[in-house]
Amino acid sequence: MPASTDQTASKSLNSQLQQEWRLVTLFLFVLTLVLSVYRSDIGLSRLDNTFYDFTLALGPPQTPPTDIALIAIDDGSIAKIGYWPWRRDIHAQLLERLEGARAIGLDMVFQEANPAYPTDDQTLAAAIAENGAVVLPQIYHPQTNRIAQPLAELRKQAAALGYINIYPDADGVVRKVKLRHTLPNGEELLHFAPTMLQVGQEGQALAPILDKESNSTRYIPYAGRPGHFNTYPYYSVLQGNYPPDYFKNKYVLIGAWSSGLGDSFSTPMSKAEQSTMSGMEILANILQASEQGKWIDVPPDWLNALLSFIPVLLVCLLLLKQSPRLAFLTLTFALIGIFLLDWVAMHVFGLWIPPTASLLVTTLAYPLWHWRSQEAALRQVSQDLEKLQRDYPEIRAAMSSSRSEQQARSLPQRLSLLHKSIDLLRRAQTRREETLRFISHDMRAPQNSLLALSALQKEATDKMSSEQLLEHVDIYASQTLELVDNFINLARAEAMDMVLKPVNLADLLADSMDLAWAAAQRKKVQLNYATTTEAWVMGNAPMLRRVLTNLIENAIKYGPENNDITASFTLSEKTVLLQISDHGWGISAEHLPHLFEPYHRAHADGNDTPSGSGLGLAFVKTVINRHDGDISVQSELGHGSIFSISLTATAPSEH
Hints:
It is an enzyme of class 2 (transferase). It is a single chain. The chain is an alpha/beta fold. It folds into 5 domains: about 5-40 and about 300-385; about 60-290, no CATH class; about 390-435; about 445-495; about 495-655, 2-Layer Sandwich (Heat Shock Protein 90). Helix content is about 50%, strand content about 15%. Helix 4 (about 90-95) runs parallel beside helix 5, helix 17 (about 445-460) packs antiparallel against helix 18 and helix 19 packs parallel to helix 20 (about 540-555). It is rod-shaped.
């Protein structure tokens, strides 16, 4: 194939690949956008939540904050104080132990009076008023827009009220908190945790939460597994086991911890042995995040789509430049990289980028790109094949002879055809070079001899007799004719459509012996034929007859007088083995590997060596190969040769 054609094909394929790459990248971008925007509608948010929980749970260990303390109504306290609910004067006694606390959050809703102990509510209200930093909870019911409030006398003495609602996601896991809630009448409720900051006069930390422009729903950056915060048993604090100033300047949360009180929820930090976290500890995580101003933010859908597409684009760029093996490794590292980047974004920058869309599209990029690139390569290979078959009829003829090659549709099959066509083209080029060499050297030699003979004859002093002149002319003309015949026979054997039919190889051998009989008689050579009645093979009779004749004539030509030439058959169910042996000059070991190559002659140096073209045995090898057979030679210089031909046996012809 000319160099300019190669460059044009390469440029065309490169253009197709560039176009396919742009289309694939555009499609993947649109797909990333759709999956990012509609991830909740098509169920991808469930996978995102799973990745979120996994990533959050892998966060670096954190030291429990020293300014947040949890007083737990645990099983041990219930065992010592008595069955729940306790009298409210017990809570009043506990508040007396917490003087100096920055803010105290009572995670208990006292909605109804206790008729059994009517004075307890007044006792608790007095203790709340005396402490001056107690925050009481309220519960907002969005379906009815009602607010469940503590008793009026308790509410009046509390430093502040905050709604304590926790909204689990659809899978029951608490990941987010709504810090502000605007009622239909315009009144705004503040969540329990920032309300404690308000009581604790944390104005700087509270400002971003109260900002109307800020997002009120935030992802909770859980600081650790259940039990992370400093927790103290209710009964121990009530008994005064801690100094009076132990809880000074601390945020104190008082709430249920007992497994039987039901105030527990699943969180991203849950694990097999601790599947839930108490509501009080969830409040502690919200309080810490509010105090530090550290939340996990989720970008808008459009920004999430762009961020999710960045690894997809990087993979697409690498797919265009790398081999399939390296591309697969790149894809693997890209998927791992998405998880690592999400971890860094969450735990370093407080940003959660839902990864499912990016993971799915990145994974899809590999098969999609290789599908489209193979389609482009297949189109280019098909175009190259069509051009080769259009420009070189011999290739078209070779391809059209095979049904399997006509039905080849996949890229490997088409590439195999292209390689075969290129191989045929190389062979054609080799034949052209051999033809030029044949014409420039072998054909010119006898013609030059004729011209030299003619020049000598023109000189009056050195003229030959007519008989001598005709003898030399006959020799040179015979050499030329032999060269042409051998060359044509070899070209025909390589290019012709070989029609194979059942033939009796024994009959063909007998015909060849008859053709060589006259030449054998001239050199007194004995032709021995170990007869067999039938040796059926699938073959082309004229070509096989020419092969056998060439081998017998060579044995006569390249041997002494009184030589013996023997042909014999060995038959089996699958093969027919024909051996032709002689006691002639033999062939040296250095010539054996090249014996069947065109223009190679094993006996070209001797003075009495017969003339030849070196094409006879190349013709023999070509014909036998076209019959899916095999030919080999055993020879030793001075001891003769044995040529063995093996062909596939077949059933006898009915005709």
